[in-house]
């Protein structure tokens, strides 16, 4: 009997609000985050992220899925990596609210991000 591979574990420490703005994915209902990576992933792959936010000593565990991939040498000099969609549920909703509170007025900005 074949077992499915264990999900990747990624530690992502975002230290600055501008970096959080560039990585946050508000288009997903539960929210999501862009993770720079040269490793190859498949869409739908499970990824376990330990996320640290600016000014917050807590680490937030997220059992997400790869929702999009930015390949190497992507257009507009986009950083290679993956977009992780947060899972449905109250923990993701609370994390999304925390991120949005940190970003505040930046959410309305039209500055370019790493995301879609």
How would you summarize what this structure contains?
The protein has 116 residues and is of the alpha+beta class. Helix content is 18%, strand content 30%.
Please outline the helices and strands.
Blueprint lengths: L7 E6 L3 H7 L8 E5 L9 E7 L6 E12 L10 E5 L4 H14 L13
Parallel strand pairs: 1-3
Antiparallel strand pairs: 2-5, 3-4, 4-5
Task: Record keyword descriptors for this entry.
116 residues, alpha+beta, 5-stranded mixed sheet, 5 strands
Description:
Helix content is 18%, strand content 30%. Strand 3 and strand 4 form a beta hairpin. The longest helix has 14 residues. The N and C termini lie far apart (39 Å).
How does the helix and strand content classify structurally? alpha+beta
Give the topology string: H per helix, E per strand. EHEEEEH
* Main beta-sheet annotation: 5 strands, mixed
Task: Report helical residue fraction.
Answer: 10-25%
> Spans with pLDDT under 50 lasting ≥5 residues?
none
Q: What's the overall geometry? A: globular
**What share of residues are in beta strands?**
25-35%
According to DSSP, the number of beta strands is 5
Instruction: Give the end-to-end Cα distance, rounded to a whole number of Å.
Output: 39 Å
Mean pLDDT: 88
Q: Radius of gyration from the CA trace?
A: 14 Å
Strand order in space, largest sheet? 1-3-4-5-2
What is the number of helices? 2
